[in-house]
Amino acid sequence: MKVLSLCSGYGGLELALDILFPGQVQVTAVCDSYRPARIVLARRFPHAVQYPDVADPLIELESADIVTFGFPCQDLSRAGKGAGLRGSRSSLFFRCAEIGNLSGAGALVIENVPQALKHRGTIEAELLRYGFVARWGRAKASEAGLPHRRDRVFVVAARRRGVLPLPPLSPVPPEFDHPPEMVLPTPTVVDMGWGRTEDEWDGWRTEQRAKHGNGNGHGQSLFQALGRPEPGVACRCMESMMGLQRGWVTGLGLSISAQRRLLGNGVAPAQGALGIYRAITSPIDD
What we know:
Blueprint: E1 2-6, H1 12-20, E2 26-31, H2 35-44, E3 49-51, E4 66-69, H3 92-102, E5 107-112, H4 120-129, E6 133-140, E7 151-158, H5 198-212, H6 222-225, H7 231-241, H8 256-265, H9 269-281
Parallel strand pairs: 1-2, 1-4, 2-3, 4-5
Antiparallel strand pairs: 5-7, 6-7
């Protein structure tokens, strides 16, 4: 399977496909506007052509069997301002779908936050305009054996049957899930407890609780839950929690801020494999 990867990050969706179809995935081209992501991609997919921007007209000349993308979620997520698919970032969905069509791909594999379901009609209509029929799956990281509850949806949109065959086995036992006591806050780009002492964190949460009139202390902090480790150790913990091979992101000499951004935005491969599997075998009903 020749794969063209857009909004690639560290290559999590491609790793997810490789879990489902081992030895069959050939990543031929990648694209990400973030330079540290391209450093990771160059090391991990050395034979893939690189593009720095989906607006590059040369990317329209790429051919592929499958196009993958996790388009920016900021305008859809709870952390954003609710601009939706027409927001300046999440509107990249339309460009990615266009590239998918121009590539001649038989299938698209898409990842995003669950809030994308609110825009299901628009997403499906745009994909159908190019002949892609969408099937949706949903999976939490904990359901794939990872110690956090990151929740994501995955879309498999095909123009013809058999482009993505039925995977031979489920990527994880269907009954598997971490007990709640084993679940940590999910790795994120913004961790308000990062770098704060225990007293500083408690004080900040108290201020936020008073300011917003709620009892949750304005969010959770993975950094604090891990015991406030040295930043490099914290990033390696994030990498492990995403189910990545050690050093996939953290072993390339990137800055701590770049590592946090990549790991906080990335796709957990095992979770992706489960979500894609569900989209193929037991899609979410309308």
